[in-house]
Amino acid sequence: MGFTIGKGSSIHLGCKFNTPDTFWMGENSTINQFCRIDNRGGIVIGNNVSISPYVKLMTADHDMNHPQCVGRQSEIALEDYVFIGADAMLLGGVRMKKGSVLGAKSLLTKSTEPFGIYLGMPAVLKSQRIQNLDYNASYDRLFN
């Protein structure tokens, strides 16, 4: 597929991508099973990022105010130590800053602040995470 995937990182079974290339993943990061990765606009994932099952990263949409309802694309970037809960969705153009968290079933429409914990539809800042993070988000699943 032409993806760049760093040492110790893994993409688990059932994940779906839209296109070759336009995907970069750092070291020791994990995308769990059955995620939907719309990488047409580009996906950049840092180191030690954990993406839970059924997450959707949507880089493309349509301009509803354009006469021809044209398609548009914009990158999603996930900086180091980002954590995304199960069944969450991120829209194109967002950047999750270092150490930020998106809770399960949340919808992220705007970029986050570093170490912020975001919840809801749309997601809003609820609290702050500790800043001295030093863990490895890589792991092997028994059956992938």
UniProtKB/TrEMBL annotation:
One annotated GO molecular function is:
acyltransferase activity
Q: Which domain of life is it from?
A: Bacteria
Q: Does the keyword Acyltransferase apply?
A: yes
Which InterPro entries does the record associate with it?
Hexapeptide_acetyltransf, Trimer_LpxA-like_sf
| Entry keywords, A to Z | Acyltransferase, Transferase
Q: Does the keyword Iron apply?
A: no
Family under the similarity heading: Belongs to the transferase hexapeptide repeat family.
| Protein name, per record | Acyltransferase
